Amino acid sequence: xxxxxPLSDPRAILETVGGKGASLARLSTAGLPVPGGFxxxxxxxxxxxxxxxxxxxxxxxxxxVDGSSLSVLETVSEAISRRFxxxxxPNAIAKAITQAYASLSGADPIVVAxxxxxxxxxxxxxxxxxxxxxxxxxxxxxxVLAAVKRCWSSLWTARAIGYRQQHHxxxxxxxxxxxxxxxxxxxxxxxLFTVNPVNGxxxxxxxxxxxxxxxxxxxxxxxxxxxxxxKSTGHVLTRQTADKQVMxxxxxxxxxxxxxxxxxxCAPVLDDQAAHELVRLAVQIEQLYNxxxxxxxxxxxxxxxxxxARPITVLPESQVQPPTEWKLPEPNGKYMRGxxxxxxxxxxxxxxxxxxxxxxxxxxxxxxxxxxGVKEWKVRLFVTINDYGYLNIKxxxxxxxxxxxAMLFKLKGVFLQAGARWQRAHHHYLEVIQRxxxxxxxxYSASELLTGIRELTGEAMQMYTVLQxxxxxxxxxxxxxxxQTYNRLIKKKGDPEASVFVMGYESMPIRAxxxxxxxxxxxxxxxxxxxxxxxxxxxxxxxxxxxxNIPAGVDPEDWGEWRRxxxxxxxxxxxxxxxxxxxxxxxxxDPSLLLExxxxxxxxxxxxxxxxxxxxxxxxxxxxxxxxxxxxxxxxWLFHKQMHSAxxxxxxxxxxxxxxxxxxxxxxxxxxxxxxRLVLAGAILQPEDVFWLYEKEVELAGGTxxxxxxxxxxxxxxxxxQAVWKAEQRVSAPMALPIGSxxxxxxLEKFTSGGLSAExxxxxxxxxxxxxxxxxxxxxxxxxxxxxxxxxxxxxAPITTPAWTPLxxxxxxxVTDIGxxxxxxxxxxxxxxxxAVLGTAFATRRIQSGxxxxxxxxxxxxxxx
Length: 865
Hints:
By secondary structure, the chain is an alpha+beta fold. It has a 9-stranded mixed sheet, covered by helices on one side. A 6-stranded antiparallel sheet has the order 9-8-7-6-12-13. The N and C termini lie far apart (77 Å). The protein contains 28 helices and 28 strands. The protein has 4 domains: 1-183, ATP-grasp fold, A domain (Dna Ligase, domain 1); 184-319, D-amino Acid Aminotransferase, Chain A, domain 1 (2-Layer Sandwich), CATH 3.30.470.20; 489-660, no CATH class; 744-864, Glucose Oxidase, domain 1 (3-Layer(bba) Sandwich), CATH 3.50.30.
């Protein structure tokens, strides 16, 4: 058994040398200036406990612990400590420590610091710092052995016991190592944070510095100098030189506090050059851990020593400023937020921007090459600017002409093959899903998971390009052609609007809504079940659904059947995406919106959707009948042909868009499984943090996980990226870049969005569903906000996709940042008979939740009160 090992020994890991020891070993191995020494391993502690039969005493005392009672903690701590002090140290352990101490170089006797290092301290998510003891200025073998025993005993201080209990750490398995290091007779010392803890700025470091040993700073006995330093340049940004009253110094039998000489009290401890050098070392440490770090340092004879480094576990959110410039990937490029970008309204998370973005780009290039009739298209088409998705639309004249001519020849095939191509893509997508569902995600290797993640993402993006080259243009052109023909050649005063002829069809989003109504109506006559569904919040119902227990007071047979029906509904419709970025949940992850919609139906607060759909269908059929009776000859033939085409493709388009997320429930399970393994490896804090990694980081992690190798922490990088994303989320991405860009003579900004009118309180957009409503606005950026929606509110959102459809049941009108006359929002708004204004560019930024607004779906305006 190894009772001591050298400081930088490869075996110096958390389990053998505790958190502090493992950190010092890592720093020393990396070449940082760490004082020499050795570890007394956790095995030595366990052997001491076993030899003195202390574990039964420890466990018996721990049963008395009440974390809220300090007096009980003190009593328990004293009882355990009393048994440690007279304990005999086994000869093998004492011999190993004596030999390791004698091997240290230096004056005789060698002066050391003896530091506790628990297996529950200096962790990335919980520091547990300062709970065990450190003994400075220890000299001689007997003193070192006594200090080691006192360190072991300090594992059971009242503070340590209470802190571990508060954070649910297993008290029965905790262990303690000890680090014995040569003492740095510090002229100055202190603490450095590699992030400014006041404002969260990641590009700044903060130094606390005082004279003497660092215990005065750590213990709060002195007000230290404070310096804020720019990490990239080493420039001191601010300096506060304190009146330092006391310092910790070495004396014959340990340390004591002494008054600082008058000449040094108000003198700066570190000059600018020393601060620069210290920050340089700290940046190396931060890069080593890839995490914001708390560093203890000392300065002796003009050289810095690193005494300790631990992750910073609590920081304010970084005050990252929103971007103000939109730097183009190509200075002369033209970029537009259109097409698939309508499904990506927010800044993209890092993993989707890199892994998903490259897949979108390749799929879009294949589509473009097909449209041009060329073998491949080499120019990148999908890019991110400030993490928002954009399409590159700068094409030379040859490409523009060739593409226009090629599409004329392909147009007929696009229409004729649209449905069949979508069905083939649909079936292939299902085959890929079924193949990856053949075993649970937990049974795949990390590399296999990554392959599945790529393949499922690729199927979703390929599906979009199939729709983009089939059902979407077919639905768009057929409705435009029908509307233009009807308005110009056929419509007379008093005739219905063209949209009436394509309403009342049961597309997949509408079928999903009808399914929720069926669920509610099935539950209604079952009194105990209906009462429970009405009275129980959605988040509790989700727990009920996953629990093996029957909710109190609910008939077991009724609950079991309703539960079966609800899961059948999820199997059919829970894949609808709110946003194509796979970091965003789908209803399969969180069905609370569906449960809340069921509750609204049970309460009778919203109408029967069958009645609405049937009314629109009757109106459509009646209007078509009247028109066909009135028309004759060429006009009748033209009307009937174009109406039939528009009626065919409009619902198919919605069915196709609903397909995009078919693989997302499984895809997100696989991503979370990958993230779970990264958590176990200590790389990230929670499985969902995997979405904040880049594709290359995930690729590297996959191989590392499969080889069971240690990983560097990515927690700091995740925290920074989340802060940047939140800042980017606060800006409105221009619909076209550079501002004022034109494509084939068309002003892209005006073509793709509305924006402000001449009146400051009016927002313009595309009026896509007629009517006028004045009501409170409810700004919802995503599923996390859905519980804020109230019956009669105006839904204000970046976009809406099929997954948003249940909210239309509650909404009195719809306003979106992105979208046009034939987007999902417009089609569904018309099906619900509520006004809608789309493509406003920044309604979610200008409008506040609760603000009264007037939505005029005829004029395409939103008036702010």
